[in-house]
Description:
35% strand
Amino acid sequence: MRKLALTLGLATIAGMALAQPLGGRVFSYTVDSDYTGHYHGLVNIIYFPMPTTAYVNPYLYVNGFMQVTWNVDGWGSGSDEMFTTINFYHNEILGLDFEGFGDLTKVPGSGPSGPLTNLNIPMQYRAVVKDINNLPMAGGGGSPFNPTYGNGFFFNTVWSPSSFLAPLYSGGKASVEVWRKITVSPDHGPGIYVNPSASLVLYRL
Length: 205
């Protein structure tokens, strides 16, 4: 198992990669000739070996949007949800692990923090994995399929390095939709609330 050196911070990166993925399999080849010359003598049968070799190189291209920033105005209680999509173009089995997800915590000094204020905004998460045909991979390839919301602890637990994307099931392109739901109550005062530790960790198995 090879852990990808890049950890994708879902709270800090708005987009990835200006390049484009390859359109599919790309082939190149060389032809070598080892048999040139005159063949004399009385040999009636001559064998010419014709070996063929194919090297399939590892391929991984990742793009998508990961950062979510809410601006909340008004009063009272309310909730909102949205999702971001991360696309994986791959010919290897990939392990996906979500780590550090949880509630949003108020940044000290960004607003009132008295005894009657709530310093944590509850967050819930869910994720859906879709294949090249945009169909849910309901357990296909070992990837979890959790359409119902759970808190950060549940989300971190459901996903682990053993949650994998297999090209056999994804068709070579897998899209992970990460849904986030925020719930704001009257005691959430002005300020900045963050969860900077949320990350997606990718393993090349």
